[in-house]
Design brief:
By secondary structure, the chain is mostly helical. The protein has one domain: Tetracycline Repressor, domain 2, CATH 1.10.357. The chain is globular and about 55 Å long. Helix 1 crosses helix 3, helix 3 packs parallel to helix 7 and helix 8 runs antiparallel to helix 9. The longest helix has 24 residues.
Length: 193
């Protein structure tokens, strides 16, 4: 157990993120964290308002970590190379940090999203990659939703062992990226009213 002294909100959130990776995001509780720190549950409320607040902070931490990894991967790349780097970094994070990744999927209050530098970077990197395909709104939003749904679905199925066919999962992932690239290059433009 960690010593009682030195608990801060940042250390608490980091410990909650680590716990999420170990036992699953939905299993993170204030009681479990209090046990890790060797304190009573009530003492954590001086650092976080509630379990919801703690989970939101974990989501913001994880979102920042994930976009940092993606940003590094896509730097200096464009087109299919950027798409593949983005997708691979997304998948690696989701599989290596399952609890943190699950946190990135929760709905967060829009005022917190607007104030988060990580969410601003996420939009900047994602929209920048997609603009290289010649997309503008509302197609950008639709393309973001397609990529997120595809990446999330693939990662969720892979993590749960849902791909039972003998074909190599990595080969299928590479083909998925190939197909998404072709689709993005040939994106049907939204009709304007």
């Amino acid at each position: 157990m960690m010593a009682r002294a030195g608990i801060t909100a940042d250390r608490l959130v980091e410990a909650a993120a680590d716990l999420a990776d170990e036992v699953g995001f939905e299993s993170v509780t204030l009681s479990a964290l209090a046990r890790r720190f060797g304190v009573k549950d009530a003492s954590l409320y001086s650092h976080v308002k509630s379990l919801h607040d703690l989970r939101t902070r974990v989501a913001l931490l994880a979102g920042g970590e994930m976009i940092d990894r993606i940003s590094t991967a896509v730097a200096g790349r464009a087109g299919k190379d950027a798409l593949a780097a983005f997708a691979d970094a997304y998948r690696e994070y989701a599989l290596e940090r399952p609890g943190r990744y699950a946190a990135t999927q929760i709905r967060i209050d829009q005022s917190l999203v607007a104030a988060s530098p990580a969410f601003a970077r996420t939009a900047e990197v994602t929209y920048g990659m997609l603009r290289a395909y010649g997309l503008d709104e509302p197609d950008l939003t639709d393309a973001v939703r397609l990529l997120r749904s595809t990446f999330h679905g693939y990662c969720a199925l892979e993590a749960s062992g849902g791909f039972g066919a003998p074909r190599d999962v990595q080969t299928s992932w590479n083909r998925t990226i190939d197909a998404l690239h072709v689709l993005l290059e040939n994106w049907p433009k939204a009709s304007t009213p």
